[in-house]
Specification:
The complex is a heterodimer of chains A (389) and B (378).
Chain A: H1 2-36, E1 52-58, H2 63-72, E2 76-78, H3 85-93, E3 99-103, H4 107-112, E4 119-123, H5 128-150, H6 156-166, E5 172-175, H7 186-214, H8 217-224, H9 230-259, H10 261-264, H11 267-293, H12 297-315, H13 326-332, H14 336-349, H15 355-388
Parallel strand pairs in A: 1-2, 1-3
Antiparallel strand pairs in A: 3-4
Helix pairs in contact in A: 1-7, 1-9, 2-6, 7-9, 7-11, 7-12, 7-14, 9-11, 11-14, 11-15, 12-14, 14-15
Chain B: H1 2-14, H2 17-45, E1 50-55, H3 58-62, H4 64-72, E2 81-86, H5 88-96, E3 102-105, E4 111-114, H6 119-144, H7 149-157, E5 163-165, H8 176-190, H9 192-200, H10 208-215, H11 220-249, H12 258-282, H13 287-304, H14 310-319, H15 321-325, H16 328-341, H17 346-370
Parallel strand pairs in B: 1-2, 1-3
Antiparallel strand pairs in B: 3-4
Helix pairs in contact in B: 1-11, 2-8, 2-11, 8-11, 8-12, 8-13, 8-16, 9-11, 9-12, 9-13, 11-12, 12-13, 12-16, 12-17, 16-17
Classes of the chains: A alpha/beta (389), B alpha/beta (378).
Chain lengths: 389, 378
């Protein structure tokens, strides 16, 4: 088993580079899990209105503005930002708030006298949040205007009281959930999607390093004249590669179990495991292909980075697929990661596991296997060309 | 002498394809990936009319005022809704296929049917609430002043706007651009590879090329500066190629102050180069370790400048402002950001001054390390 041992030694030597990816993976998973605890809702059952982050700055104090702030508070989370141009602008840019509203001095008095007074806003132009808050502001003051114009000498306090009772009733909202039991697999979904990046990086780095060593001309010639059958050398080499890839997969999947133990005991997890295992097969094919193509050691890192980042960016590993443009997704269709992420997203939504339900997932997995086979075939062609050269 | 060293150094560096790949091709490729992945994020925030349905039954036909209100906000360019009038079965089907965000049933009280709690659904609800609230106000007023009925009907028809937008003089708050600014900052700092190489090729105890250069009758600092000029030139061209690619091919906005953008690129290049030289002079280990330090420090600084998640930059600047001043990559990113987003220069110049302080520290540190090293034998 000399060849097998040699392979393990090579992997051991390269382990520190691969560990970086495992650590990044672990860190991202931990951040994800900590940010998700607390929001762990098991699907929406009743309707909850959205709240927008708003910076509310008032240059005056009045009963009208108090009432208005109270009403706005129903659809806004007020964020405290110091009243400085730079702090406010920064908060808007980084979406700490989506809307800044300023009540200028004298607004309430002007309003009570039916003058043309306005609040000042700074918001992301034409954004949905912008429209939402505008609607609320206009609603409040248009209703208030009815009172001011029709009830003579109404005081601000009385106006605020009337408005509070007028604005209390709300439309009834019925939520259709189709009676589905909707377990929360958001975390597992994110985790297994992100697994594509780490797994692909680790397997490409590890396998390419092995193949690169064994492709060395002098070493190959030396190996060929050794009293070990070439079949045995190949078998040991394949065995070592298998051991490496399966352990890489196992370690990362184990992390998911540990971090998300509560939600892991379901049928969905079995499918997540299946899809990630199929993806590992494809990674092997791709790594074998890359390992046989590259000619220098420095190129391993470059190719690995460009391939993994490229695949992951366009297929929805870092940015969810629904946010990607249709053109980008069309290109992404030519990468195995796209089908892997697509399969994972579908698995996360599964609530029933009949053949009809899992059929689209199985077809995605078949496509990934097809990619794997294509990579292996291409690699074998490359190997063969090299041999005759 | 300058021309000789400069020209040969240029030739020599350009043949090092691996460094060129990392410092030029990699950022270009990464920029393209950023563009493909992020370009839709900002447009996703933009409001598009919401697709809704209303059940076209007897009650809806009877409730003239609600029908008119709904029709008013569903017509014109600035409409809120794309409204379709359907039967209840059609509406359910549309909702199941997610072709509409919800449908309205006109009964007492008016009901909204949705299948999830999103912002679009909230806007529809807000519109219905609006109608309910106005009706409630009318009732209250009429109970106090019954003779005002005609005036109220007139008033209710004239809705006014009570907010005016304060136009910002700088750029739009497009968060996505920040990722590209950090990318340029990263590219500038990848110039550190050139800085590292210059030190490796001038310190006689590191490489045989350096030993030969030291034996030549040229002052060491002169030899270093002349070849460094070649490195900086290559790096600057690479950064400019990246910026041109982002501006002309990907059509990203850097604001209108082109001259200052170029100045920032130049200062960034010098900072990156001097950073690499400094690391190489200080870390007396193998080239692999030096590369690891340069890449590691660059990536950590990139992280804190918001390359992986833009909110990090904001959190750091609010919670630990000192950290954002001692991170040269953040200063560079912030320079591009303030040129784009602010119409004043104070923040920009603060960044640039701090960057020049970094350059001074890196350069003097490097100088103190490499000066007057003579070897009797190596």
């Amino acid at each position: 088993m000399q060849v097998f041992k040699l392979c393990l030694n090579i992997i051991k030597k390269n382990l520190h580079i691969m560990l970086i990816y495992v650590i990044v993976f672990l860190a991202v998973s931990l951040i994800m899990s900590s940010s998700m605890t607390g929001t762990g809702k098991a699907g929406d059952i009743s309707f909850t209105g959205k709240k927008v982050d708003v910076a509310f700055i008032s240059e005056e104090e009045s009963a009208l503005i108090d009432g208005f702030k109270h009403e706005l508070g129903k659809i806004a989370n007020f964020v405290e930002i110091p009243d400085e141009t730079e702090a406010l602008q920064d908060a808007l840019y980084f979406r700490k708030v989506s809307y800044i509203v300023r009540v200028p001095e004298g607004f309430s008095e002007g309003f009570m006298r039916s003058e043309d007074v306005r609040l000042e806003k700074t918001a992301v132009p034409n954004s949905v949040d912008n429209i939402y808050i505008d609607l609320c502001i206009d609603k409040y003051f248009n209703t208030a205007r009815l009172y001011v114009r029709n009830l003579k000498d109404i005081s601000q306090e009385a106006l605020a009281r009337y408005l509070e009772s007028d604005l209390a009733p709300a439309a009834s909202v019925e939520m259709i959930t189709n009676g589905k039991e909707n377990n929360d697999h958001t975390y597992a979904n994110y985790f297994y999607n992100f697994l594509a990046y780490s797994l692909l990086s680790v397997i490409i780095l590890g396998m390419s390093a092995l193949i690169f060593v064994f492709n060395d001309r002098d070493l190959r010639m030396r190996n060929e004249c050794s009293p070990v059958k070439s079949g045995s050398i190949n078998m040991q080499f394949i065995l070592a590669n298998l051991l490496f890839t399966v352990s890489a997969w196992f370690v990362m999947v184990l992390l998911c179990f540990l971090l998300n133990f509560k939600n892991s005991l379901s049928m969905n997890t079995v499918y997540f495991l299946l899809s990630s295992f199929v993806f590992v097969f494809c990674c092997c094919g791709l790594s074998y292909f890359i390992g046989n193509l590259i000619k220098s050691k420095g190129a391993i890192g470059a190719v690995c980075n460009i391939v993994t980042l490229g695949f992951c960016f366009i297929s929805g590993v870092f940015v969810p697929q629904e946010y990607l443009g249709s053109f980008v997704l069309k290109i992404a269709g030519f990468t195995p990661t796209y089908w892997y992420v697509k399969a994972n997203n579908e698995i996360a939504k599964l609530t029933e596991f009949g053949f009809q339900n899992v059929k689209p997932i199985l077809s995605d997995l078949l496509i990934i296997i097809g990619f794997g086979l294509a990579f292996f075939t291409a690699a074998l062609v490359a190997v063969k060309n090299k041999r005759y050269a | 002498m300058f021309v000789h060293i400069f020209a040969y150094r240029l030739k020599c560096l350009m043949r090092d394809w691996e460094t060129i790949l990392w410092t030029m091709v990699f950022p270009l490729v990464l920029g393209t990936f950023f563009y493909m992945a992020f370009s839709n994020l900002y447009t996703n925030e933009i409001f598009n009319p919401i697709n809704i349905a209303v059940i076209n039954d007897e009650q809806y036909a009877k409730n003239k005022s609600f029908r008119e209100a709904l029709e008013e906000v569903s017509t014109g360019d600035e409409r809120l809704f794309n409204l379709s009038e359907t039967t209840i079965d059609e509406a359910n089907e549309l909702l199941n296929e997610n072709l509409i965000d919800g449908y309205i049933v006109v009964e007492m009280p008016i009901k909204l049917v949705v299948n999830n709690s999103g912002i679009n659904q909230s806007i529809v609800k807000s519109f219905i609430d609006n109608y309910i609230h106005a009706s409630s106000a009318v009732e209250t007023i009429l109970s106090i002043e019954p003779e005002q009925i005609q005036k109220i009907i007139d008033d209710i028809g004239n809705r006014e706007t009570y907010v005016s937008e304060k136009k910002s003089t700088g750029g739009e708050p497009n968060t996505i651009l920040l990722y590209f600014y950090t990318l340029i900052a990263m590219t500038c700092f990848y110039g550190g590879f050139f800085g590292m190489r210059e030190i490796n090729d001038i310190q006689a105890d590191i490489s045989s090329v350096a030993a030969r250069v030291n034996a030549a009758p040229v002052h060491k600092i002169k030899a270093f500066l002349f070849s460094a000029a070649a490195s900086v030139l290559i790096q600057l061209v690479e950064v400019l190629v990246l910026i041109s690619y982002l501006v002309f091919m990907l059509k990203l906005d850097f604001g209108s102050k082109t001259g200052f953008v170029l100045l920032t690129a130049f200062i960034g290049t010098i900072t990156g180069f001097s950073f690499g030289a400094f690391i190489s002079a200080v870390v007396k280990k193998s080239e692999g370790i030096k590369v690891a330090v340069i890449v590691g420090v660059t990536m950590i600084c990139c992280f804190f400048a918001g390359m992986m998640q833009h909110e990090i930059k904001y959190i750091i600047s609010r919670k630990a402002p000192v950290l954002s001043y001692v991170n040269p990559l953040n200063l560079l990113t912030d320079s591009f950001y303030s040129l784009y987003y602010y119409d004043t220069f104070s923040r920009y110049f603060k960044n640039i001054i701090l960057l020049t302080v970094f350059i001074a520290v890196f350069c003097s540190g490097t100088y103190l390390m490499i000066r007057r090293r003579k070897y009797a034998s190596i």
